[in-house]
């Protein structure tokens, strides 16, 4: 039986992972693919949920059973591999965080009329305040849960206002009229790619949730995280579907903003600002925490100054955004990183699952390993295609 403290930690880890996934890119991708595929996007979402769950269960279980962060597991599978993974995650997380800070600035611009740069600075300050607080872990859990629930509630309202054809969406969840492999790969990468899937697992380690005895709770946490992110995806899809089905055309410059505005007028547009800010600021927190957690185990000084390094990480991302401006090219490169990190890290976890020196007496379920290998192959193909497109 799980006590209240452990349940709060588990829920906090689930929301940290989910809100790390729900960033500016998540909102934009969902709106764009709904406009492209219509009700058939429901089938893509269903497949992505299954793939996400497989990746998440494998990674969370192995990390917590081994009681080691992913980079240490990787170093035990092959010396030096953990450093390579840590470098990819750290640089990819920094690139994405530049975009997240820009998104937070845009959210405050829509909501309060602030200059985007000023909004970005204020948002970075709020994120930094969480890690300055002496109980940063609890503050981070609370922040992720409150803003996660807020985003879901506001998007539910917009979905209701847009009056989507729910029956048609349910039918095409099973029998789609069209399909896009690119859409599937993109939203899987955006939900469990890069640093995102490790956010919750590393949070559980920090809270002392480790070992085989916690596996049932870890399973619940992993599936809850995917459930939260998927619920937001479904609600945003329904909101966009209602708008598109009514004959409206989404603004290519800001598709998710036009969904909210077309569904509920100026009030909807202001709500979009709040949702965008919430999505971006929680992703800033999640990306900073997880990126630094990948280098923390390499030196005692890094662990000692963990929160200060996270603050420096956020400050650096904010400064780069203010100097460079819109980080479009950086985000494209980061997308390639995300596409490569998941299959590599998941493959490492699958190998570690059969290494007694790492997992002790733990026995990995065969079906989970087989499903995990299938996801590795799929995501490797995505990473390859992304690199080909970048070099073309």
From TrEMBL:
GO CC terms of this entry: membrane
Transmembrane regions listed in the UniProt entry: 37-60, 81-104, 110-133, 142-160, 180-201, 222-247, 267-292, 304-324, 330-354, 366-384
Stored Pfam families: Nramp
InterPro entries in alphabetical order: NRAMP_fam
Keyword Transmembrane assigned: yes
Entry keyword set: Membrane, Transmembrane, Transmembrane helix
Record's bilayer topology term: Multi-pass membrane protein
Subcellular location(s) per record: Membrane
GO molecular function, one term: metal ion transmembrane transporter activity
Annotated protein name in UniProt: Mn2+ and Fe2+ transporters of the NRAMP family
